[in-house]
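On to my pick:
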Amino acid sequence: MTETRRTIKFEKMHGLGNDFVVIDARHDPDGLSPALVTAIADRHRGVGFDQLAVIESGAADAHLVFYNSDGSTSAACGNATRCIARKLLNENGKSELTLTTERGTLYAREAGDGLVSVNMGHPQLTWDDIPLARDMDTLHLPLEGGPTATGMGNPHCTFFVEDAEAVDLEVLGPRFETDPLFPERTNVQFASLRGENHLRMRVWERGVGTTLASGSSSCATAVAAARRGLTGRKVRIDLDGGTLHINWAEDGVWMTGATMHVFSGEFTLDFLEAAS
């Protein structure tokens, strides 16, 4: 690191306990190495997060880049997108936003009562779009438990079980995340039906592990449940960290829920030097 390197400001946010470090690089861009990302992710020596999100300037209101806690990148992160949308809506006084990501163009809007809705786009339902390793029926994968595969900018594998709370995520999550069927690894969800259009879901995120909530996983689970005839296209999903409402509409999958800005901070030069 050169002597001219500056400190980096950040914000800590969460959506239902799915927590993020957010760096606003629109006016002060600064590249992040995988080593720095993993150093920030360390909950003992850094800040800790499920994902790190960088806000960049672009043709839309902003462009978003996402990193997992292991330093890998992700094309989509629904709860982080909602958190950043809340920040930008408060900042510019708008009621709607257009955001770009590796996933594509996403739309966000005020949903009332402090809630934010984000359209995560149309789900990817064919084996090569998700992607899977070979051509197969994405509704019933050839894995124990017959899960459903769904792409939401990142791959998802959803198991429908009797009791999601009884599942040992720490054992089954990494087993299926790295299954050869998923060349880019996968998020793993376990969901059980609680009532009409009401699901209980727990999630293991690729590159992260067990998280209290996941927006893209919730969208994928809602799509999978509707495709299998378990629910309609509008569902409530209860996660370990709270509740999201998902609507698989004609224009894409809308996700609505709460967000929280926890604190703002600044990484010291000592920390940045040690992490470089």
Notes: The mean pLDDT is 95. The chain has two domains: 8-119+259-275, 148-250. The two ends are 7 Å apart (CA to CA).
